[in-house]
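User: Can you help me understand a structure? I only have the sequence.
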Amino acid sequence: MGKKGSKSAGNVLVASVIIIIIALLLIGYFSYGVTAVIVDGISMKPTLHSGDIVFSYKEPYNKIDIGNIVIYRYYDMLIIHRVIGEYYHNGILCFIIKGDNNPVPDPGYPNYCGYYSVDGFTTGGVPYWEIKGVVYTINGNTPLVIPYIGSMTLAIRGTGNDVI
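Assistant: Let's start by predicting it. Here is the structure, written out as tokens:
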């Protein structure tokens, strides 16, 4: 087979893989609520990098554990960070959340969760209803990631439109 034939076979293989991935994402979304998310930012390095694609699912709030990587809404943004603690404030379950690469926990919503002191920092927690998904992991601790594939989307759309 010449160079032209092998290049054509390579293109067919790449296209087939892309079609299979899209089909699996659609099946996962409609059957199990799985969502693919592009990471945008450096706050989760070295675990996640800008352009990585991760997969999230909706989890009952009482099953979210310390150590889970979650996607939550912070006003008009979606943020992907790790749960480092939890507490109740006036009967509301609140999560303390922090990016792996950030020195301090996220500010949260003190109007719902009050303030909580952790590792010498006072922060507000994130109320359970703002948690939009939990990132799928392998063996419970390594996130399921397609590295850097989302970088093309970030380059075309610009940053700031995806999960940070």
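Now, to help you interpret it: The first strand starts at residue 35 and ends at 38. The longest helix spans residues 3-32. Let me know which part you'd like to focus on.
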